[in-house]
Amino acid sequence: MTFKLTNGERVRAAHKGDYVEYVDGSQAHILTGAGESNSNIALVGSLLSNGDEIINTPQGSVILIAREGVQLAEDFLPLIQN
User: Which residues contact 64 (CB under 8 A, 6 or more apart)?
Assistant: First the structure.
């Protein structure tokens, strides 16, 4: 899945299993995502192998909506025990 950012740049969506790279060159593995039914796409709230959490995104065109009374899939941003 790709997104077109407001500056016109096209970027690929990150998924559970991908790596994020920090400015200092270090990397962390994405551990959680939106679940198999949503292609395990990484979300704001996805947890990383170094204990960090994704807190923002450069794209603003796609959202997932949780409805009151409708259970989310078990694998949607599951809790990770340290």
Answer: 34, 38, 43
Q: Give residue-wise pLDDT tens across range 20-50.
A: 999 999 999 999 999 999 999 999 999 999 9
Is this prediction's pTM over 0.70? Answer: yes
Which stretches of the chain are assigned E, i.e. beta strand?
2-4, 10-12, 19-21, 27-29
Cross-strand pairs, 29: 19
pLDDT of residue 15: 97
Tracing tokens 């990484």 back to the chain, one arrives at 42
Range of the domain at 39: 1-82
Give the residue among 37, 38, 36, 42 at the shortest CA–CA distance from 14.
42
> How many domains does the chain fold into?
1
Is residue 47 within 8 Å of 32, Cβ to Cβ?
A: yes
Residues 64 and 82: their CA atoms lie apart, in Å, by 27
